[in-house]
Write a structure and sequence with these properties.
By secondary structure, the protein is of the alpha+beta class. The protein has a single domain (about 55-185), classed as Nuclear Transport Factor 2, Chain: A. About 40% of the residues lie in helices and about 25% in strands. The chain has 6 helices and 10 strands; from the N terminus they run ββαββααββααββββα. The chain has a 4-stranded antiparallel β-sheet, covered by helices on one side. The chain has a two-stranded antiparallel ribbon with strand order 1-2. Strand 5 and strand 6 (about 85) form a beta hairpin. Helix 2 packs across helix 5 (about 110-125).
Length: about 190
């Protein structure tokens, strides 16, 4: 057994010394684990200090990012009720999703290259000179709040096309573009 001398004198085993040094770190990790992502009080969640973007604003940011071919910004605003396509959920989350995809419980996480290619294809189709975001309406049957917004695009080919966007409300309190009616741009 290895022994170490303490600063104040006396001997301690190396294993005991290592355990004593680990205690503050374990306490810090335990405290960090106790803090939740959302603040709560006795009456439920506290209001979010930053209000979520309105669906029309999310569509506008998505279209602006598409024109800049900013794939990262696009993938942060495109996804499902589970979250943006650009946030895969880490190695553990993707591991579980991959296993679930083997038994038909969902789809695997897309790779970063797949996300980039998907966003690039949409950016190419959505290239425009200008756009006008129209009125929004509720979409039924999504199992969560959803909105449809018709957007008039003046494409780079100087063609006016109305493209529908469907947005969903995520579990973490934001709107994401879930569907884009690209068929109207290709037909």
């Amino acid at each position: 057994m290895l022994w170490k001398r303490r600063k104040g004198g006396g001997l301690v085993s190396a294993a005991e010394d290592r355990d004593v040094k680990a205690v503050p770190w374990l306490a810090l990790l335990a405290l960090a684990g106790c803090s939740g992502a959302a603040a709560h009080n006795a009456h439920g969640p506290l209001p979010n200090p930053e209000p979520p973007l309105e669906p029309a604003r999310v569509v506008a940011e998505f279209l602006d990012a598409a024109n800049r071919r900013d794939h990262a910004a696009m993938s942060a605003r495109f996804g499902t009720g589970d979250g943006p396509i650009g946030e895969a959920g880490g190695a553990i989350g993707c591991g579980f999703r991959r296993i679930g995809s083997w038994i038909g419980l969902g789809e695997r996480c897309p790779t970063a290259a797949e996300v980039e290619l998907r966003m690039d294809l949409m950016a190419a189709l959505l290239a425009h000179q200008s756009y006008r975001v129209g009125a929004q309406e509720e979409v039924a049957g999504k199992g969560r709040p959803a909105r449809r917004i018709e957007v008039e695009l003046n494409t780079v080919a100087e063609r006016d096309v109305t493209v529908p966007f469907v947005l969903v409300w995520t579990g973490d309190g934001r709107w994401l573009v879930e569907e884009v009616g690209l068929g109207r741009l290709t037909g």
